[in-house]
Amino acid sequence: MQMAEHWTAQSEAFNFVAFAKDKAYRELNRALIAKAFARLPSPFFHVDVASGTGLVPQEVCALCQEQDKRGTIIGIDPDRFALESARKHTHPGPNCVVEFVKGVAQDMARLLAGKIPRAGVDYTSIHDAIHEIKREDDKRGVLATMASILNPGGILTLNSAFTTAALEESAMVWGRLKAKAFAILGGKRDRQMAAIKIHTPEEYRQMIVETGLEVIHEAKLLMKMSHPAMEALARYPAFIEGVFGDMVGKEQVPLEAKSRALLEALKILGSAEPSRVCYEVMAQRGI
Ligand SMILES: C[S@@+](CC[C@H](N)C(=O)[O-])C[C@H]1O[C@@H](n2cnc3c(N)ncnc32)[C@H](O)[C@@H]1O
Hints:
287 residues, alpha/beta, Rossmann fold, seven-stranded mixed beta sheet, binds S-adenosylmethionine
C-alpha cells in the first residue's frame, strides 16, 4: 500500500463545494463528460479518480437519466469531507449505481480489487486533479493504471486548469492577486524555493500517449472566472496553499489567514474576473 501523500484536507469552512457549483466550471466539465458518454455502452462501468465533491459522477448520472443509459460509477478520493459531500449530494437515480471509495489514486489497484469487472471498465476520468498528485512518477503511475483497467475501446478523460497554459490569457490579473495577497500578509517570496513542476499540456498529452492510449480529442478552453467563482477558489485549500507555495514561512501562517488575505485581495482588486485556460484530453484504448 502507498503511503498517503500530504494534501490539505477540506473542511466545512474550506472546501471545493462552492467552486464545483460554478456554472462555467460545470459546463466545461459536462461538455467533456458528454463527449465520452456518447461512446459508452449501456450498461457501462466508470471509475472517476479524485472525485472530490462528486461533480463527475453527478454529471454522468444526469446523462444516464437524460439518455436512458445504465451505469455503475466508482469515485475515488482521499478527502473525508469531500467524500461525505459527494455521498450526500450525488443522486444516482434509477439507472445508476454509485459508490465512493476513500483513498489516494496511487492506491487505485488495491482500492478497486474485486469491485470492477475482470474484463475492464469502459471509462476512467480524472478531472481537475492530476496536478494535485505531486510526484512525477505518481502522476504517470496513476495514468498508467487508469489506462490499464480500460477494456478495449474504453475511454479516458483528463482536464486541468493548472498547466503552463492556465494563466496565458490573464497573467497580469493573477499576478496582481498573488502580489496583493502576499502584501496583506507581509509575506516574502522565496526565490530559492524549487517551484513545483507545472506541466505543459503537451507533457500531459505525452504521459497519456505513453500509457498506450490514443488521443482522440484535445482542446484548450477559456474558462471565465466570475467574482463568486474567485471567492470560492479562495476557500479551496489546495488552491490557497498553491498561491502561497513559495512564501517564506508559509507553514507558520494558518490556512484561515491565507484565505482571508486572498479574499481581501479580491475585494481590493474589485471587478477582476480573469480567465483560466483549461486543457482537456480524451483518449481511447485500441480495440
Ligand atoms: C480540485 S478537486 C477536483 C474534484 C473533482 N474531480 C471535480 O472536478 O470537481 C481535486 C481533488 O483531488 C483530490 N486529490 C488530491 N490528491 C489526490 C490523490 N493523490 N489521489 C486522489 N485524489 C486526490 C482532492 O482530495 C480533491 O478532492
